[in-house]
């Protein structure tokens, strides 16, 4: 189907609320979700280890992200009955299915760091938009 005003342009698909592209955005929208999945792709970690791998994440935000990922079946939480208590997190089989597309996105980000820098500079010049640093503080 083409647009009668601009016949060389295809009309985009309707992005319904229940379609996979929108659903993946809802799942990955929380700020730390993709980073937790990425870090756990290297292996099982305890809460403190995860937090040290993500400078800038508060304990509250990390805990919230871990709870959401556990609820969604993407990570497993194992509690050890020791003193002091010890908890480990790992990716489930479903969580591992997210690693490949995340790595592709992260590879793209590395290859396009100059573009991301340019966007950060534009945001810094426009006080109404948060910069990447301000987004990281949240």
Descriptive account of the structure:
This protein is mostly helical and 138 residues long. It has a single domain, classed as Arc Repressor Mutant, subunit A (Orthogonal Bundle). 53% of the residues lie in helices and 10% in strands. The protein has 8 helices and 3 strands; from the N terminus they run H-H-E-H-H-E-E-H-H-H-H. It has helices spanning 20-28, 33-40, 47-53, 59-71, 93-96, 99-111, 113-125, 132-137; strands spanning 45-46, 75-80, 86-91. A 3-stranded antiparallel β-sheet has the order 1-3-2. A hairpin with a 5-residue loop joins strand 2 (75-80) and strand 3. The longest helix is centred in the middle third of the chain and has 13 residues, at 59-71. The protein is globular, with a radius of gyration of 19 Å.
